[in-house]
Structure prediction request, 253 residues.
Amino acid sequence: MDGYTIKDANFLRVISNIYIETYEKTQKSRDIIIFTTALQKTNNGILISGEGFLYKASDRFCIMYDAGLDRPAAYVHELGHVLGCEHSFVDIPDKWEQAKNKALSRINENNENIQAGDVDIVKYEEKISDANIKISTLKSKLELMKQSNSATAQKNIFTLNKNIETLNKNISKYKAAIANNKANNEIYKQRVLNAEKKLAELSSIKEKNPYRFFNQGTTSNFMDYSSNMNDFYKWQWMAMQEDVEKYYNKVDL
Prediction:
């Protein structure tokens, strides 16, 4: 933070997490939360009025900065994001494309991790098999050595037992590595499922926002950046209505 200007790009994420940890640790609410602050925030050197989650996993929060505190239309704009509306113009860079590519990247990355884990599991299973074969061979030799009471035989018996002990320790290590890889793979699989869910959510957002204009600031739409924001398009009303219905009908938050 520099003076009264917020530099942290994840400021809204941070304070929303603090809110959840403080007030919803045991039970989540179905509220839409608007944070207000006299602090400023800029984007490319321009003061922004607020921020609202749209392409994030948690879409219940928005924040109004100093530049938007006395602008009712700015509140409506950010609430529009929370309720599933994109900008009415094409963002450059395209935030929807960025979110989609991020989800696809997570899917690919975690699938690669799963494949690498599976390869390691097979490798360790083969090592266990090889170790068991060696142990079986050493035990056969051990039985033969036990038939002799010579000093050389006793020395060999000691060596064989040490080798068997080492192989058993290695087998324990291999089994632990397999268990670790399997546990990690379950984490990676859940991440893939989460990213696939995010892709489905993004597709739904795109379907509910079928039209965007190339020229920013040329309409009276609340999701535009203009001085005359006072209306929503029909598809935006429908998008918000659907989002509210789905949100309040969800069993699990």
